[in-house]
Design a protein that fits this description.
With about 110 residues, this protein is an alpha/beta fold. The chain contains 4 helices and 5 strands; from the N terminus they run E-H-E-H-E-H-E-E-H. It has a single domain (about 5-100), classed as Glutaredoxin, CATH 3.40.30.10. The protein has helices spanning about 15-20, 35-50, 65-70, 95-105; strands at about 5, 25-30, 55-60, 80-85, 85-90. Strands 1-3-2-4-5 form a 5-stranded mixed sheet. The radius of gyration is 12 Å and the shape is globular. The two termini are about 25 Å apart. Keywords: Disulfide bond, Electron transport, Redox-active center, Transport.
Length: about 110
């Protein structure tokens, strides 16, 4: 995982995501999830590509069940985007890097 990606917890979510002055992309995942392992490297690349413009973060649903429940995460991977502290978009499942990039560009 890229050093530019933040691991979120219930305690850090509001400060890092909702109070951020930049758009935030949050990847809800788990270690046992095959599709999540496909999305992980894409998130690493996006963290590099959008460094300084967008914050990429991850939530391990096994460790942070309360956050997963708060956002009604029923399937993983689920990617949520936030802008100005508001949920902007929700995508469930694997997408290409280009599709994720387009999603992020809409936030900028």
């Amino acid at each position: 995982m890229s050093g530019k990606i933040i691991n979120l917890t219930n305690e850090t979510f509001d400060e890092i995501v909702l109070k951020s002055d930049k758009p935030v992309v949050v990847d809800f995942w788990a270690t046992w999830c095959g599709p999540c392992r496909m999305v992980g490297p894409i998130m690493d690349e996006l963290a590099e590509d959008f460094d300084g413009k967008v914050q990429i973060a991850k939530v391990n649903v096994d460790d942070q069940g309360e956050l997963a429940a708060k956002f009604k995460i029923m399937s993983i991977p689920t990617i949520l985007t936030f802008k100005n502290g508001e949920l902007a978009e929700k995508v469930v499942g694997v997408r290409s890097k280009e599709e994720f990039s387009d999603m992020i560009n809409k936030l900028l």
